[in-house]
Amino acid sequence: MAFVKDMLRMWAHSWKRFISIAMITLLGVAVLTGIYAGCRDAFRSTDRFFDAQGLHDVQVLSTAGLSNGDIAALRKVNGVAKVQAERSQEVTFDLDGRKSATMQEIGTNGIDQPYLQEGRMPKKAGEIAVTRKFIRDSGKRIGSRLTVTPESASSDTSDADNSGTDNSGTNETNGTDEAPSFPTKLTIVGVVLDSQNLSNPDGYSAMTSFRSTATTDYTFFAPSDGVTGTLYTAATLLVKGAAAESTFDESYENTVKQVTDRIDGTVKTDRQKARRQELLDAGNKKIVDARAEADKKFADAQSQIDANRQQFNQQVDQIVDMQASAAAANAGAAAAAGAPNAAAAAGTNAPNPQLDETTRETMRETIIAASPELTQAKQQLDQAQSQLNEQKASTEQTLKTKENELKTSIPQVRWYVQDRQSLGGFSALKSDLDSIQSLGNAFPIVFLLVAVMMSLTAMARMVEEDRSLIGTYVGLGYGRLAVASRYLLFALLACLIGGGLGLIAGFLGIPAFLLVVLQGMYVMPGLRLEYDWLYGSLGIALFVVGVLAATIYACVQEMRQTPASLLRPKAPRAGSRILLERIRPVWNRIGFLGKVTARNIFRFKSRLIMTVGGVAGCTALIVCGLAINDTVADLGIKQYRDIYQYDLMVVSDDSDASAMRTKVASDGRVTSSLDVRIESGDLTVAGSGDGDSGKAGSSGSESIQLVAVPEKHLSDLGEMVTLQPVSSGMLGTSGVGKTGSLKLDDDGVIVAQSAASALGVKAGSKVRLTNGDGVQATAKVSAVNRNLIGSDVYVSETYYAKLFDSKDAKNTKNSKSSEDSEALTWNAMLAKLSGSDTSQTDYAESLEEDSSVMKAVSCAHMADSFKFDLMGAVVALIVALAGGLALVVLFTLANTNVSERVREMATLKVLGFFDREVHHYVNREMMILTVMGVILGLPLGRLVGGMLTMALNMPSLYFEVEVKPLSYVIAAVATMAFALLVQLFVNPVLDRIDPISSLKSVE
């Protein structure tokens, strides 16, 4: 019992150490669990929401639409739980200019259901539900009416379907399937959240960049009632067993990938061929029907002409007969005059005159020529016959041409099998959370190392103070384990209390803060905070093990001695010279107190290492957090001011490219420009490890912006984009070549650094490119270009034709002339503008209102508006926690330093030192050690910052580590400020030292 009371008394006396260990554990556990818990809560709530709304696991799109046969084939795929055929249509309406929207049919099979936020779901034809973004932009409300106009050439079948294949073209060759059609007079009955896009329209401004040329401004949801058409724009699938997995886990991706591989394997190829054959059959049927209809019309026209000609011939023959009869009568009269009796008898019985064909034809021509009316009638008949013959020949020639051109006019049908990663809202949320979680996995390591160091310092001093007491207990027969339990339980209790408070902060405080920031960027219904018993327990256990290990080490170091040795005071450390003493010119010029300070600093190496190491670690954390903040803050400026030299990028449909260039040229704002072709595609690295890829075994895919440059203007690309070759370095660094040393040629493509870093691609690698038409080709990477935002891949016109036209040539080798294969449509323009940044931004906005412009991006606007709010919030949190850790570390080290030197401080007071002089004597050592820790921590923070930015592997982003001088200053000043703050707590302790009682101590 006395042992326990003494132990409790000892614990109460060491309350400062207890608080120090508890605070360090609290901060460490909070960092370890807080960021993890915040991301996990967001992941889980989003996964529950996706399951509740039936977000598709797989989506199938086609450049020619999907038929009932396609849907039936998808239902037969092994592993598919549900298939939902979807219809949509692009419409336009007037809302402060021309705006576009996608009319989306609400599926009846429970897939991709919108989440009702206000009002009710539409049920009847003409009713729609809109998103909150539309309500905010339009000022409309539930009950408002809206009239829309269908796009004349709507192409909703694919995000990549802007290459010339659209639904209207399909309908012209397919007489059985009709494109979807929606009502045009609409009434808003509800406000919904699109389950495919969780972006918060009322939150922080999000990252904006040009992604795709096939997006609309809004999405309207309509019921099946009133929707016509049997051609589907998409098919969405749910995979068996996928709902049981978390959508953000690798197990979910593997489950879905098995189904997508099956679809890509056989179903896709077979149905692409079948669908194209359907279109060919429908086209041939139209040609046959057109020929039959033309033959019928021509036959009717020929019959009419023949009837008119027959009537004309009868009239002429009657005149011929009349003239022949008259001539015969005249001849008979003349004969009768010579022989009256005989002639009268003969004239009475004379037959009608008979004419031979030659005479009759001569008479016909003579009669027609003599009559203007008959001449005109004959000419009209001949002209009608001639025109009919010409129409027959022309129609026959047209139909033969159509037959010959049918196969070439109907392109190869392509399917696009996509998973949730292709959804912009899903991938953005996942990449944001993954990046933050990667920070949460790295920072606790530093906290744990600092916690172990501080615990070792504190507990070693605590055991050393009880040296004689330990010897007494051991001499009285207490086991060493029993004696050590006093300190182990002390450390354990401090860890458990600190860890428990850390769990509260980690599973409630920090997640609540992160989720507030997240909800400003995304809408996540049903979000709630949850506790993870396993992770929380392991978090505390990790720090308990570390602290107890340090405590055990401190106990072992003392208790391995005999009780007799422990009962005697510890022998003073043997005197020794420090290195500075050997430098006589310097040492001789140092005052007495300065020499004492130098000896105290360098002779006690353990205290030196602990203090400098602890301060350096905290300073490094602050620098690291500020480095990430500086890196993210400068991304937009570096990309849109330094790398992109152009001021404006304008993109149009292929059909509007000429009108777009004319419009921009007529405005007179452009000082120089470069016509290019921009397509949205993919860059893939196969994980074969054959040496062609950037890294052995590397794999992955990245969405890219494929930029084709005209052959005659390859040298002009360097004037619009800063071309600098880069090579990967260590710890977040990269070697950047000389500006202008990189040239685009016909030997390969230039890949953006953001994509190359994510996929491990380097110069000389072989990659697989997918262009806007879905055609794939293997390309050589000639160089990697410095690029931070977006994933641009630059390719010359000649190399583009070599890559992609040769692919089509396999199936349509004789259908393309060399002239056709070289004819790329330059659907985009990179331009430099005159005027201020504001005027350039306004000009880009005005261009988007033009019907020929699909997208206009101002680099000035992008540089000013680029933000990464979530990363900024996490960095602020990390810097705050690192500052708190620095404060606790300095407080622990200062108190340990004072407790070790109580006798020394008492001696100084006996010698006549005033309190202020004692403060200066002690605090000067701590300040020097702090300065040494800061000097070491500043470059260490830059090093750790580089390592962490390598972990922030986000789509279309490369974090080029940037640490501004001000950040170093802030980190150093903050650490020194914490040191000065600690002095305010330490000075009263120095004042309370009693020289008499301290010098009477056993020590």
UniProtKB/TrEMBL annotation:
Domain ABC3 transporter permease C-terminal: residue ranges: 442-553, 877-982
Transmembrane segments: 442-460, 487-513, 533-556, 608-628, 870-893, 926-948, 968-990
Membrane topology field: Multi-pass membrane protein
Transmembrane helix as UniProt keyword: yes
Region annotation Disordered: where it falls in the sequence: 141-182, 379-400, 683-702
Tree of life domain: Bacteria
Keywords: Cell membrane, Membrane, Transmembrane, Transmembrane helix
Subcellular localization(s) per the UniProt record: Cell membrane
Amino acid composition bias (Low complexity), ranges on this chain: 152-169, 379-391
InterPro entries, A to Z: ABC3_permease_C, Membrane_comp_ABC_pdt
GO annotation, cellular component aspect: plasma membrane
Primary location recorded for the protein, binned into one broad class: membrane
Protein name (record): Efflux ABC transporter, permease protein
Organism: Bifidobacterium adolescentis
